[in-house]
């Protein structure tokens, strides 16, 4: 959904995908936007759309549900890669709403990210979709209803299962290497 906020900024919603993490220190990471993925409003964000804004040194805010009166943390890293707009930040334990957001995210009740931005340059593609080629990024929010419904947050408990599996793979590789050296 593409929404115009009372401030005049546009908001674009997207769910966290399986790359999201939330650790015991209230750190979160995931993709706030995916390049070339058509959202429910029919818009596509092009690779490089955030580059100029990110290079301007503006401090992108972390908000709760796009509410400018509810900052809940800080983004330590925001960057474009081949996949989209990657964000890494921390919910602030000293903020009550951030503690609530952490609990809701862990429970799977909140699993979305949404960007607040101003369109600088866009064009229509051959299918009539608006292609955002340059945006001014203002904020990335944790939200209930993101724009890309198929991208899902992996349950918090699954993170430890993945780590156990990964540890087993490394242990098996170590044992195989030791067995080869012994031959």
UniProtKB/TrEMBL annotation:
Keyword RNA-binding: no
The keyword Hydrolase appears for this protein: yes
InterPro entries from the UniProt entry: Peptidase_S78_dom, Prohead_protease
Pfam families with a match to the protein in the record: Peptidase_S78 (PF04586)
Keywords noted in UniProt: Hydrolase, Protease, Viral release from host cell
Molecular functions (GO terms): peptidase activity
Domain of life: Bacteria
Domain Prohead serine protease positions: 24-158
GO BP: any one term: proteolysis
UniProt-listed NCBIfam families: proheadase_HK97
Protein name: HK97 family phage prohead protease
Organism: Gymnodinialimonas ceratoperidinii
């Amino acid at each position: 959904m593409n929404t115009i906020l009372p401030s005049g900024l546009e908001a674009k919603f997207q769910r966290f995908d399986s790359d999201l993490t939330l650790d015991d220190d209230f750190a979160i990471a995931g993709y706030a936007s995916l390049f070339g993925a058509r959202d429910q409003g029919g818009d596509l964000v092009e690779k490089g759309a955030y580059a100029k804004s990110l290079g301007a040194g503006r401090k992108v805010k972390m908000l709760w549900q796009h509410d400018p009166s509810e900052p809940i943390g800080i983004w330590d890293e925001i960057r474009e890669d081949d996949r989209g707009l990657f964000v890494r930040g921390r919910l602030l334990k000293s903020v009550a709403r951030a503690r609530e957001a952490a609990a809701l995210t862990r429970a799977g009740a909140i699993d979305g990210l949404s960007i607040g931005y101003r369109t600088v340059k866009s064009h229509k593609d051959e299918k009539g979709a608006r292609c955002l080629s340059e945006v001014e990024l203002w904020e990335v929010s944790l939200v209930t209803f993101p724009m890309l419904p198929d991208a899902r947050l992996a349950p918090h408990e699954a993170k430890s299962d993945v780590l156990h599996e990964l540890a087993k793979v490394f242990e098996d590789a170590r044992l195989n290497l030791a067995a080869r050296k012994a031959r």
